[in-house]
């Protein structure tokens, strides 16, 4: 059944949307818009190609349009500039990874989640986001470094302490 | 090409290299501590992301998503095509079936066990609540909380020593997690949950939850899941021993 194939992806789409938006209501709005578009465009899906990557591509387009409507691209840049001027001094716990994720530019967050959480291959991620693989790699690299910097309050302290004890 | 690029390191962290390339990068990492540390941090980021958001997979799907249809405005054009493809049903009935399947305890057992593994196995300082040096206390305590006598398998011959255990919240009550480790730091967890449903037994089942392999089975009132980030064959050998010790 064709709709069964789409429906089977709902739990994973919800997981990705939740991580992407950080808000369960907004995430489900995103999933709903994605499902509606997928159903409307189902005749465009090439049978035999990976449906998951196709659904993520649709979600990416919906997400970008929502961001543009909310002007969040500009917000991300401003936030980034502010952050680099003022590094965090208080240590961040693992559970704050969610908060750290919010502070990544949307394009880095997308790649980090598609590759790290959804385990798409780099080629699939490049297809879903409609950018070259080189762009996927540079966003991945910057996103990971940034996430690490945001989390590093805790890590740096731990390392220093260990050295002192030794 | 003998140089290892940053792309190689990312691909290594993301398990996207073929065997030959993977071994080359592994050799490189053995010589370059900083690169090895980067890879470790990236993998940890991946694990934490999954641990953080995997619970969404088990949440019930909201009704409005089950009712999702192609936008109404497009019906005049799409009705024909969609009707022919059976799309006019919406998604509800399909997902209903999916959720019914998910609600069976055996379907969620391996996932919960894998999430618990992903959260605690990478833990350096606090992998367990009670260490193996207090094994008697550990077993008594967890048995009491689960309301069922528990046994702890001995996996020394397989190269794994007990690290200890902890109590976790399960779907319908307390769950016990025992952790083992070999000399290389490879960890295995045994996740034991008490079932409220009719006692029954099942055969071994296997589930691959992302990078974590899980063998699970039900034995009367208890559900067991053995999880590790290792190959299926190797884990099966350990699972067989565990099963035999629990069912002498």
Structure description:
- The complex is a heterodimer of chains A (166) and B (248).
- Chain A has helices at 2-7, 10-21, 24-40, 51-70, 72-85, 97-102, 106-117, 122-129, 133-165.
- With 166 residues, chain A is an all-alpha fold.
- Chain A has two domains: 1-72, RNA polymerase sigma factor, region 2, helix turn helix motif (Rna Polymerase Sigma Factor, Chain: A, Orthogonal Bundle); 88-166, Arc Repressor Mutant, subunit A.
- In chain A, helix 7 crosses helix 9 (133-165).
- The longest helix of chain A is centred in the C-terminal third of the chain and has 33 residues, at 133-165.
- The N and C termini of chain A lie far apart (63 Å).
- The relative contact order of chain A is 0.11.
- With 248 residues, chain B is an alpha+beta fold.
- Chain B has three domains: 6-55, no CATH class; 60-98, no CATH class; 105-246, Phosphorylase Kinase, domain 1.
- Helices cover 45% and strands 20% of the residues of chain B.
- Chain B contains nine helices and eight strands.
- In chain B, strands 1, 2, 3, 4, 5, 6, 7 and 8 form an eight-stranded antiparallel beta sheet that branches.
- In chain B, strand 2 and strand 3 form a beta hairpin.
- In chain B, helix 1 crosses helix 3 (33-53) and helix 3 (33-53) packs antiparallel against helix 7 (105-120).
- The longest helix of chain B has 21 residues, at 33-53.
- The N and C termini of chain B lie far apart (54 Å).
- The model of chain B is unreliable at 72-90 and 92-106 (pLDDT under 50).
- The chains are: A mainly alpha (166), B alpha+beta (248).
- The interface between A and B is large, with 42 and 43 residues.
